[in-house]
Amino acid sequence: MNKKYDLVVYIGRFQPFHNAHYEILCRAKALANKVVLIIGSAEQPRTYKNPFTDYERKMIMIADWEVTMHCIKDSMYNDQAWAIRVQEAVSKSVYNNFDSEENLKIGIIGHEKDESSFYLKMFPQWDHIDVECIEPLHSTDIRDLYFRKDANMNFIKGVVPENVFEFLKNFKDTADYEQIIREREFIIDYKKQFASCPYPPTFVTTDAVVIQSGHVLMIKRRAEPGRGLWAIPGGFLNAATDKSIVDCMVRELKEETGIKVPVPVLVGSIKDNRVFDAIGRSTRGRTITHAFKIVLPDGELPKVKGMDDAEKAQWIPIGELQSRECYEDHYEIISYFVGA
Q: Are the beta carbons of 118 and 280 closer than 8 angstroms?
C-alpha cells in the first residue's frame, strides 16, 4: 500500500517512553513505509533527568514495532553537530532501505510543546508533521511520580505501554533507582535555601581542564549531586575572598587535587578559557562556569590526591574518558578544549 511518506523521523529522549509517544509512533507508521526513531541523550550518566541508558530505552521500545532506531549523543553547546548526527542516522536508514535518495519523501513528526521542541525546525529539508497535544502528559511528570519513595505505580501503569511498565517495575528494585531518589531529594532540599529569593539565583563557578602528556586531571565526586562521577576540578566563586576568577580556579584546583605544581606555573600554563553557560547544564540551578585550559609540559605526571569534596583525583588518558561516567557537561567542556 502506498503511503504519504517514504520515511518519517521521530526524535525524543523518551525518559521514559509513554502512551503519548506510542500514539505519535503509530501515526508515523501509518504515514510512512519506514520510521526512524532517534533516541537522544545517549551515553549520559544516570541522573533524574536522564535516568535510563540509551541501551535500556532501546531494548524496552524494540518490541515488535518494526522501526529503525538510532541512539545519538547530545551537544549542549553545538546544535549543528547534533543536527549532523541526526542527518547521518537518517542517511544510514535511507541507504539500508531504499535504492536511491532521489525523490524520496521524508517527514519529521512531533508536537511543538515548548522551547525544547526547537529541533523540529532544524531540518527544513523534511516535511514537518505537526501533532496536536494528545494528552497533558510528559515524561517529566512520570519521572516526578516514579522517583519517590511512595511511587504511585498504579497511575504509571496506566500511562506507559505494558513492556515499559514491566521495566519500570523491575528497575525500582535496583541500587540505581535508590541513587536517583537520593539525588532528587538532595536537589529539592538544596533549592529550598533560595526559595525566599525574589529572583532565581545565578551561581558562578570555575573549572580547570589540566592536560599533560595526553592525560586530563579528573576528580571523582564524593557527594551529591553526581556522586561517583568523574568531574573537572572546580567549584563556586568565593565572593568574599577570591580576588579573581583565575584565583578561584587555582584555589579549587589545589584544594581538590593537591597537585604538586606551583601556582605561578599553573597560571602561566593557561592556554585558553571559555564561559559555559547553557541554561540546563546544572541541576542545582542556573550555573555559569569559567573554564580554563591548562597545558603542562610533557613528562612525568605530577602527583595528585583527592581532597575536600573529591573522593579521589586521577590522571585519565583522554582517549579512555567516557561521557556516561562524567558529571553534568564536563565531558563536553573537555571535548571543546581538546578539539574532539
A: no
Domains in the chain, CATH or no CATH each:
5-176 (3.40.50.620), 202-338 (3.90.79.10)
pTM equals: 0.91
Q: Which of 60, 64, 67, 15 is nearest to 42 (CA)?
A: 15
CB-based contact 299:265 (threshold 8 Å): no
Q: How far apart are CA 52 and CA 12, in angstroms?
A: 13
Residues 6+ apart with CB under 8 A from 50: 13, 15, 41, 44
**Measuring CA to CA, which residue among 235, 232, 258, 262 is closest to residue 248?**
235
Centre a 10 Å sphere on the Cβ of residue 18 and count the other Cβ atoms it contains.
Answer: 21
Mean pLDDT score of the chain: 93
Residue 143's H or E segment, with its range, is: helix 139-146
